[in-house]
Amino acid sequence: MILGKLDIFKGLNPQELALMADKVVVRTYAKNTVVINEGDYADALYIINSGRVKVYCSDKAGKEFIMNTMKAGEHFGELALLDDDKRSASVRTLDKSNFCIIYKEDFNRVLDEQPNIAKVLIRNLARRVRKLTHDVKLLALQDVYGRVVNVLNDLAAPRDAISSIIPDKLTQQDIADRVGASREMVARILKDLVAGDYISFEGRQIIIHGRLPAEY
């Protein structure tokens, strides 16, 4: 059961998971579809069955800052289950994507039968907030190079005993949007990492050859 694999539902018993699963609605969205808009009223949790999405916010000039990219097995919009506030970010599909969706109205019906679920969710969300605080701290304290290295390491998957690969097609502008820097600065950092044989490119995929330097 996919719900049982999610960190947000960690600690629920089989009966509670079954009740939640009964409320799931499955939807498919085409590539480049906005699933939720920043500022909309939150009304559902989305679980990614297949495909990829980007989570982003925009300034008044329309410039995007990419907060995260997510793939199958991850979820977003969980705060909608616990409050009545507006969405804090937008989400757009990067590929054709399929979702399991739990709407707040249905979730509240389950809580009427199993109030323990709310306690479990609050505990799990508190863990996620701590991680977010850690990530924001790193973003505030690190220089651009450190932020670029964090992005590369976060997105990398093991390739062999030494190297790793970033399977997603990642442009210099994608990285710049994630670290809050100019594309030119990111290009210079990547060029130097290539020159030092720390990374290489296979098409648009980035190969990381062992541990990246801690300092630039």
UniProtKB/TrEMBL annotation:
Domain HTH crp-type: 142-212
Protein name per Swiss-Prot or TrEMBL: Crp/Fnr family transcriptional regulator
Annotated keywords: DNA-binding, Transcription, Transcription regulation
UniProt GO MF annotations: DNA binding; DNA-binding transcription factor activity
GO CC, any one term: cytosol
PROSITE patterns, alphabetized: CNMP_BINDING_1, CNMP_BINDING_2, CNMP_BINDING_3, HTH_CRP_2
InterPro entries the record matches: cNMP-bd_CS, cNMP-bd_dom, cNMP-bd_dom_sf, Env_Response_Regulators, HTH_CRP, RmlC-like_jellyroll, WH-like_DNA-bd_sf, WH_DNA-bd_sf
Domain Cyclic nucleotide-binding: start-end pairs: 8-128
Keyword DNA damage listed: no
Record PANTHER family: CRP FAMILY TRANSCRIPTIONAL REGULATORY PROTEIN, HTH-TYPE TRANSCRIPTIONAL REGULATOR ARCR
